[in-house]
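Please complete every field before forwarding. Incomplete forms are returned to the sender.

SECTION A: IDENTIFIERS
Entry label: holo-395
Bound molecule: pyridoxal-5'-phosphate
Molecule representation: SMILES string

SECTION B: INPUTS
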Amino acid sequence: MSETPPDVGELSPPQRTLMGPGPSPVHPRVLKAMSTPLVGHLDPSFVEIMDETQELLRYTFQTDNQWTIPVSGTGSAAMEAAIGNLTEPGDTFLAPTNGYFGDRMAEMARRAGADVVRVGAPWGEPLDPDDVADACAEFDPDVFGFVHAETSTGAKQTNVPAITEAAHDHGALVIADTVTSIGGVELRVDDWNIDAAYAGPQKCLSCPPGASPLTLNDRAMDKVLDRDEPARSWYLDLSLLEGYWGDERAYHHTAPISNVYALREALRLVAEEGIEERWARHERVAGALKAGVEAMGLGLNPEDDYWLPSLNAVHVPDGVEDSDVIEYVLEHYDLEIASGLGDLEGDIFRIGCMGHGARPENVTLVLAALADAFDALGADVDAAAGMAAAREQLR
Ligand SMILES: *Cc1c(COP(=O)(O)O)cnc(C)c1O
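SECTION C: PREDICTED COMPLEX
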């Protein structure tokens, strides 16, 4: 070990415009909330903040579920809390094959002791309700999980009420991954009969990662409280967390105070804007981005029927490598976009249009930066047509 202390300078990260798959740009009010003084996690004032955060979360999920909380950790923590608590060893868990996060669901269910079975659709397409019904008839699952907004493919699951009905007809509980839809794309937990939904704060809620939304209805919570053996994770055990987030307010672990402040402020912004207005804004602004890249001659990967405004999967044009373009726009424009994953690696750019990032000036920046990168790197696209089409949509 060195005797001299490390000479590390003051923190000064670059000012990026975050238009990838998350995190998204954080609203200044949320950053300010994060820097306010801490209170104890059992302080009466914090109990009030918890209640308000839960109330705001219910609005954002469009649910009356009592059991609606922020889970300490990133979206994957809320995901593991949902899957790990609702899956008992020996359960059959039906998971989708149509994207990277469906695979993650399957892996978490396997680790929770489930027999995992799959219902398929190609990457970039939603599940067909008939296929879900067939899979439920064949496997008789205890739990069915699906991804509402597949961040790896830019495809939205349509017909959600039909797939939840198919699962319920066979007595399965339904878990929805709503990480990239919450606060950005129409999501109605109660109307669509979703039993449990988890989400993340750093996508369309534009909040730093750290406290992640989760909601369970009574049917789901009854299963959690009625388990034969406790969930395998102590930290994410919802029957223990009930002691903290429920009426008792007893210590389980220290809540990430600053992250709860941030989430509360991010959710206040949702409430001020109005949830439906917010969904409409994402569609309008991302629609301009979509029109722009299409006019440039680049298609989107999913069909229009399942286009996901919060995550646009744009084809990489001939003549360039995706990684060169991504590097170019980061270096020259401080702009972050991302490459494809899994089956779509090398074929698409993933361009987010999320929360505070879903603004017209960001669409203009993305289109200008891409046009410059394609020109510099040797792809033939019609940049002027792209700009004109986007402008037309934003008017
Ligand atoms: C980002 C994401 C997750 C995981 O969230 P983390 O915050 O990265 O842990 C899960 N599902 C989907 C669909 C996502 O986009």
